Structure formats: C-alpha cells, structure tokens
Amino acid sequence: MDFAFSEEQEAFRETLRRFLEEKCPITEVFRLIETEEGRDPAVWKQMGEELGLQGLLIPEAHGGQGFTFLELGIALEEMGRVLLPSPFFASACLAASAILAAGDDAQRAEWLPAIASGESVASLAVLEPGGTWEPSALALEARPDGDGFTLHGEKTCVLDGCLADVLVVAARLPGSEGDDGVSLLVVRTDGPGVTAEAIPTLDPTRKQARVRFDAARGTALGAPGESAPALRATLHRAAIGLAAEMAGGAQRALDMAVAYARERSQFARPIGSFQAIKHKAAEVLLEVELARSAAWWACWTAAEDNEECTEAAHLAKAVCADAYMRAAAENVQIHGGIGFTWEAAPHLYFRRAKVSGILFGDSVRHRALLADSIGIPAS
After folding, report:
1. For residue 349, what are the β-bridge partners?
2. Which of 53, 75, 86, 54 is nearest to 9 (CA)?
3. Which of 211, 226, 241 is the last residue of a domain?
C-alpha cells in the first residue's frame, strides 16, 4: 500500500476544491436547503459535463472515467468538506456501485452511461420501516411477472429519492428468507405504482424520501434471488464512501473552530490562547487524523478489491462517525452562543454528522460487525 497520493490525485483534489469553493460557499448551501429540489441543476450539469465526476467509478466502456474508489473518495471528502447539497453520493456511489456489483455487461451498458453523464439521477433503496440494513432483514417482495417483477411494499430513508428517476431496490422473492431470494432490481420512478414522498430529517443538506411500491415494475440485476453478496459489497462501499465524506466534514469543522478561536477575543486575548480551547482542538485533531487514516485505508481496500475491505468498511464508518460528531460538537461549543444560531454554519455540520453517523448503521453496530468479522466473541 502506498501511503501517499499521486501527483495526479493531488491535482484532482486541488481542482475539485477550487470548483466546490467557488460553486458551493456556505451562503449557497443555506440557499439550496430552502429549495424543494435541494441542489443547483447548473452545478450538477457542470459536474458531469466538465469534470466527469458522476462517472468517476464507472468504466470508460460505459461512459465513465474508469477511476478507482480512491478518486471517488477524494471527491466525497471534498464534497463533505463544503456540505455540497447534491445527489452525487446517492447516484455516483450507491446506485453505480450496486449496478456494477450485481448487473451483467448488458445491464451495465443500459444503465450506467446516463448515470455517468449526470443525465440520470439514481439512488439505492434498502432500508424498510422498522427494519435494518442487513440483507437478511428485507421484507419487500419482488413477485415474478412475465419477464420482470412487481414490487409490493415500502422503503424509507432513500437518499434523494424524490430526485431520482432510477432506483436500485433491494427486495426478496416470495417465500424466501435470510440471504436466499435477495434480489436487486432497477425501477424507473416515473412508472406506475411508484410514489416518492419527501420526509423531514435533522440534516437539511441531504434530502431523503419514503418510496412506496404498489405493483411497480422492476428488472432484476443479474440472477434473481442471488444478490445478497452484491448488496453486502455495495453497502460496504457505501459505508466507505460515507466515511470519506465524514472525514472531510470533520476536518472542515475543526478548521472552522480553530479559525474562530484565533479571531474571537475575550479578556483582550484570542480565546485560542486559553488552555481549555487548546486542549479541545488538540483532542479533535487527533481524532480527525485517525479518522482520515481509517477512511483512506478503507478506500484503498475498495479500490484494490482487497480481502480486508469488509473489516475496513466497518472500522472506517465507526471511527469517522465518532470523529465527525466530536469535531462538529466542539465546533459549536468553541463558537459559543452564535454556534447554535441558524445563520451560523456550525449547526449544519453538527446535523450532517448526526445523520451520517446513523446512516448504514451507527458506530456501535459497525464495531460489533467488525468484532464478529475478525472473530472476537461478543461479551
């Protein structure tokens, strides 16, 4: 493993950071979260046409850039740094990963080019009301119907579900249980029987939806009933991508806190000169550095399809979730009273940290899964 980024990767990061700082200052984030769509279509178009971001993970044969998960991780870290309101994570990471993992060559050729160009917005629908992220917990049924399937049930917490024109839906064949019968199906949201409803969340920078299926038509990716391994691999990569994004947000929260501590004065001294503030910042710095290391190790395992990818995903999600929450909370505290106000940015990072921390399972769950995967018995 190379512990340093290449010159090309660093240049990519620098270019992307300039683009995001220009197109998504915090004032623009505040504007976009008040809109129904929650994104800037012009920026989304630029991301696809000028930078090719939506196709980072997609092979060149299917209209993408053909890069690895490391480059996708760089993009997600930079987007997390500015809280970019965008369906990028849902489309370019979640849905694209699912199609790559479960689909055959013909299905990849059918669905991926539009995602790569940004013409299509896609998302992944897994979680059900009262359910968990485990594939074995799926209850939504995919009933055989001619050359396809009909879906009956409901999904919740679907990222950017109201924006997506394509959903990759996790379901199971009738009468199956556990990992048997688990299928991933592609569903067009403009078809009959699909209803998406926006749901309120603590984090206004990332929209979520409840999606209901009433005999909605879907096409199975790969062999019907055999998608449990592909779904697990997709969820591992989702956790890794989210970890990279959280690492970027945690670093930005720390930077904001340090900058404010240097300029805010009390008793004729910058508050950053007080020992209590120094200790807070130093402790957060340690957690953020550890989190970034975990995130980039996980991105490397995903890029290399390394056998440690599962363990890396659980570790990165747990460590980055805790580090982001700590950095965001201390950022609010160091800002003092203004940190709690709507007009100030710290609360937006706190909200993103809180919601991201429980997405795909909280740190407690991922630590338990990590312990199980490496053979440590539950206490």
Report:
1. none
2. 75
3. 226
